[in-house]
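Here is one chain, start to finish.
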Amino acid sequence: MSPTKLHRNPPFRAEHLGSLLRPESLLTTRAQLDKKEATQSQLSSIEDDAVNEIVKLQLDLGFHPVSDGEYRRHMFWGTFFPGLEGFEEIQDPPMEIFRPYMPDIAAFTESGHKPGESVICTGKIKHVGSTYVDQWNYLKQLVPEPKRGELKLTLAAPEWYHMRYREGRAYPADVYKSDAEYFSDIAAAYQTELKTLYENGLRNVQIDDPNFAYFCSEKAMKGFREDDSNKSTFEELLDDYIGLYNDCLTGRPADMHVGVHICRGNFVGSRHFSEGGYDQIAKKLFNHLNVDTYYLEYDTPRAGGFEPLKALPKNKNVILGLITSKFPELENIDEMKKKVDQAAELIAEGTGQSKAEALDQLGVSPQCGFASHSSGNAVTMDDMAAKLKLVRTLADEIWPGQP
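Its structure:
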């Protein structure tokens, strides 16, 4: 069910997207574990210390939606899918299972590489225990109880291991007869996951979904239309994914804030995967996807302009990802304030509200995380802190006194 009123605090005026640069000690110990030169208990101790420090940094900088930096993950999507019964992580997957025109897959092949691993459905899907709840329970005990509802946990997109695969390759034909059957079990698993996390105190969820940006990519659209194996149109696939999301969120409590983060890729060395504005998806995304908040990349022209924000209804938030997490140069704060003003004007034009009312639907953030991959972007810890400080300062100057 779509939210009926604007959900605030969360989201906050100053946001970030969850993943933060890992300290060298953490990266080194994880590499040692992979080589069997360290133990899991040694890694866990290093992770605990690193999470403690990154939580302190966020609080010191004045952030409310504090995360654990995704420090216990290798990639931003974490371990939700490998933790489900019916999914298996495979190494060196055959290229013929992938849609080669999907931007993340194309980025590998165009550079002469291929995905080193993937996760694929091999049997009936069932939730058999949360792989996130221990991460959450450690994080929540680092802040006073009244602040726990502000903390943020990021989750993988429900269609993550469907969109990349060719028609008929996302699951065995003798297990699921259709996407609808497959999606039904994915949704049931998400419902159980969210219920488990809610019962443990989580109230602020961000789903990371670069796939929605693929529907903005002319290159991806062209590839999909030219692929004769596809049984649906690209537009119908978008509708199916919005329906999947809404099924995943069925029954969520009103006080559980859910947002979706849409970016164009954030891989090792600050690489992006796709390009294209939100014009293709804005009306459906803003009006049919039952989330409270959209965290939107807006740091470069590859994300297009603010015109699509005219489709935003009065009961939804947008966090403008104006500050790049990919490179160290600091943005001009006056230029950023002008951009927020432009966005508010267009939202007001679309809803018929005043600009002040439209401004109440906005916040600011980096365009993506600083380490979607554990290796991180082409920035230093000091660069990251300066970027986060700029986000906080920008929010304070536009919405003084608001978190």
